[in-house]
Amino acid sequence: MAKYSVNQLPVSTLLAQVQSDQIAIPELQRPFVWDSIKVRDLMDSLYRGFPVGYLITWQSVGAHLKGGQTAAHQQILIDGQQRITALRAAVAGLPVINKRYQKKRITIAFNPVTEEFATATPVIRKNPQWISDISEVFRSAAAFRFVGNYVSENPDVDQDTAAENIGKLAEIKNAQIGVIALSDDLDVETVSEIFIRINSKGVPLSSADFAMSKIATYGDRGRNLRKLIDYFSHLSVAPHAFSDIAENDTEFAASPYLQQIAWLKDESEDLYDPSYSDLIRVAGLVGFSRGKASSIVSELSGRDPETRKVDEARIPVAYDNLEKALGEITSKYQFENFIMTIKSAGFISPKLINSKNALNFAYALYLRMRQDPSLSEGERKRITRRWFVMSMLTGRHSGSFESVWEQDMRRISQHGAAEYLQQIEETELTDAFWEARLPADLETTSTNSPYFQSFLASQIASGARGFLSKSITVATMQQHSGDIHHIVPKNYLVKSGLTDRTEYNQVANYAITETAINIAIKDAPPEVYLDRVEQQSETGILDLGEINSQSDLARNLEENALPPTLRDVTAENYFDFLAERRRLMSQAIRRFYRGL
């Protein structure tokens, strides 16, 4: 069976099919990303008969058209949205959506004498030699009348040239554009592979984009669910856009979904700002126990995961499940409680989280556990915290994470979250992990490594103070101002012959400290700067930080997972120090995990 068909369609037919909803373009409701120069260049290419690339569509079973009909073979446009939107703007004279979700015209002008296209400006509009809006030519019932009017306003131009070029302009509506229509029985992976091979830039097609396009084909409900996802992800980053959306998207504003996410307009939290792709993945886990974004497409297409056959009776049920999942995901109460749960594990800043997948799964897990009446809220939070930190430390949600997600959700459903988490802990977080693997993982220069981030989270959760700070905590410095300090100063090591940055920039040589303390230490080795701290207990004069007792200094070193013998560390025994520090950091993370 052919996987696709290739057709050449005139511009006018394409625009008519978009207008009648035979080709669905959900992105028409998203901000148009092309500037007017690209629109101008597209029109120039069509005028000159240059190729403008293929559009790619994918058949959608069970799509809802305007008027309530169901289309067995509606096409979803999965590549070419910007070109179609540009054609609607320039040829049909229809508005686009700008960054403020307002409808704006992009007007393209044409000079029949020079055959030049340009973005319409006040100067061009005043110049009779220019057709200031080419959409008027395409709307004109009789092109010869348009030519006559133009010639009468421009008696000095060559009438034959002007008439010929205006005729060529009008013929753009008949310009042929290639459309590759992929069949409905193709799975998302195959469609994506075809897309990559066709696309000259080799840009991979996101399965989340497939899902977003598919969601929008289910009539008003589908379009608004798609917008719910899109607007939630947008508002979580830019709350100020709420008024623009409310004012300019009347369809969505009239639905109950806008009020559902209205709380985001006052939200400034940035720990977890899920993209539309993240929301699709979380919805797949919560609503369908599926880890792949493409699985949502299969569910919404009515495809039975067991038989692989399409049953259209499954489609409305799938949309019910999706809507319910999105309702939970976008709930102010659920979302804020999840954020507080993650923060209570010490991950108080987005700088401490380098794995969005770990957050996505943890949120899905938290919401799924709310469906289990045997679990108290406290138990749900405890499991969420431990799962999140476990996944950060083990890299559980990296690599081929989608299949792991599905396996995890399946086993959580079978055994319960608490029991399954315990199984993972007994298998993966063994003594060998804490005593060998984690110290080895801490042998890195990356402050973005999940192991160093987990160490900082452990300090935050325990209320640890910054290195040589008497009262200012690591948490305070994460939220405001603090430095990553070389415990054994970099310049001291370099002068001692350790010039390799992968040696002196080890995370085991890092500690969070106040800027003033970092400056005061400068390039001095531990023996020198610790002597200054110890003298403070004798003289009472604060020279470096505010610690003024030996016992408090010892506690501070312990809070920072530093050996009590730090003052004896030199360039000669520096590598022994790193090994010992990694061991102490691993022990701190282990105590932290057990206390979650």
UniProtKB/TrEMBL annotation:
Q: What is the lineage of its organism?
A: Bacteria, Bacillati, Actinomycetota, Actinomycetes, Micrococcales
Q: Which organism is it from?
A: Gulosibacter chungangensis
Domain of life of the native organism = Bacteria
Recorded hits in Pfam families, A to Z, give: GmrSD_N (PF03235)
State the name under which the record lists this protein: DUF262 domain-containing protein
Query: Where in this chain does the record put each GmrSD restriction endonucleases N-terminal domain?
Result: 13-214
